[in-house]
Amino acid sequence: xxxxxxxxxxxxxxxxxxxxxxxxxxxxxxxxxxxxxxxxxxxxxxxxxxxxxxxxxxxxxxxxxxxxxxxxxxxxxxxxxxxxxxxxxxxxxxxxxxxxxxxxxxxxxxxxxxxxxxxxxxxxxxxxxxxxxxxxxxxxxxxxxxxxxxxxxxxxxxxxxxxxxxxxxxxxxxx
Length: 175
Fold this sequence. Notes:
This protein is of the alpha+beta class. It has helices at about 1-20, 50, 85-100, 155-160, 170, and strands spanning about 60-70, 70-80, 110-115, 130-135, 160-165. Strand 1 and strand 2 (about 70-80) form a beta hairpin.
C-alpha cells in the first residue's frame, strides 16, 4: 500500500513537471467589459437618428425628425384648439437639445419648431409655426446643465438660445 501511494505521488509529480514545460497559448483578447465605464458619444447618422430620441419623453407629439449637415431638425405638432403651456414647450425643447448635444459627437445644431395643425387644413397649406428655437453646440469646455439643475427654464432658454415666437403665439399660451 505505501509503495502504491509513493508510485502515484511520483507519477503525479512527473506529470505536473512535464505539463509545466508545455508552452502556454496566450489569449490576449479581453472580452470583459467594465461595469462603470464612461459612455462613448454616439456618432449620429441617418440610420440611427431615431434611436437618439427613443429615451426622450416630450409633452407634445414629435411630428418629424430630420438629420442633415450635422444639424437635427425637430418638429413638434399641436392641435389648433389645444392650449399651450410655455414651460412644457421649453422643457420639450431643452430635453431634445440636451440629449442631442450631450450624447453625440457630430451634432452641431438643433433646430426646434412647434407647429400648429388645423383639423381641416389643406394638404398644400403648410402648418403655422408658433415657436422656433435654435441651439448650437457649446464650446469644448462648456456643457449644458442637466434639466434638474435649472431653476427657471423659460428664462434660461430665452437667455441662452435663439428663440423666435409668432406674434399671436402669446394668445395661445395658457396663463
